[in-house]
Amino acid sequence: MTGSRDRRLKVCFVIPSLAGGGAERVAVQVLNALDDDRWERSMYLFARSGPFLGDVAPAVRLESAGTSSRVGRWRGLRCFVRRARPDVVVAFLSYLSVLTATRAARVGTRVIFDVETPVSAFLTDSEYRWSGRWNRRLFSAAMRIGCALADLIVATSRGVAEDLVDSFGAPSARVHVVPNPVDLPAVAAAAQEPLDRTMQALWKPPVIVAAGRLAEAKNYPLLIDAFALLRERMPASLFILGKGDEESALRRMIQVRGLADVVHLCGFQTNPWKYIARADVFALTSRYEGFGNVVVEAMACGVPIVATSSPGTRDIVSPGVDGLLVERHEPAAVADALARVLTDGDLRTRMIETARRKVERYRIESVALTYDRVLTEALA
Question: Model-level pTM?
Fold first, then answer.
């Protein structure tokens, strides 16, 4: 295979939309970073919407279904694949729809699944419609079929890969672990921006920052309960960045525990890194994470990490070396970890220095090269 323009390989990333989630951001970043001399790139959306639309590189061909009908979207993708004849399609979400539509096009296109979350944990999350008993069975059956028929599978962490193999019968030889990329220069630049005056007035060290959707999976009640216990030992402030369906319940919880003056729900922030970079510790108390981009971003900002143990965080954090992992998802355990980081200056310094070196492996350029190898293997 040569790098000449007329013999570029065709790759298409397929995703429902470019809504502001982790999978959507990863899809855009990786596709943008693939070598333009080697790959003719396209992206197919079931719905042309989402805040990441403007981030798609001009050289990437952007196509969409133009209909809200599921059948219409499936047919639209099949027609696109038949017309554009990509060598390989990478499915982010909607795996079985992408697989069957691509196979139905009958043009020999290979199919890769990109799985960003431990599917077994996802199926127990009440936020999603698949959490119902019969829906879980249906989704599980479809996932088993998809894992058997996909040409390759990319899992964002070893835990996600193991779940696919153990729970859904994915052939281990066809599952590749590829971490999510992080735009380290962008994070570093954004972290330098100042806080506005309102936030500066509330910023009373030591400060703990958390970031992510206000959703059940992120388990903010655990963090708030742990913070209440921490406050019995030492003064501290907590800033939570994000919005979601759990906001009202969290506000009530904060009021009931008498923490309204020291726990601040800051809503969605276009630049969360300027908050994270000024924190004394970054906390993540999710029930599960497929990867945890925000953990890598916090490391890049030079902030110590306290995170609950899950498939994604176990791949990123080396306990006691560049952060602390809490195995027991309980308030006392989280509070102990936060107190340890906040009171041990030598430990903090070591963690920060080690973490800054580790994050280099997550640079977009490095991750894109790994994707290139996986795409090439699918075509071999």
Answer: 0.88
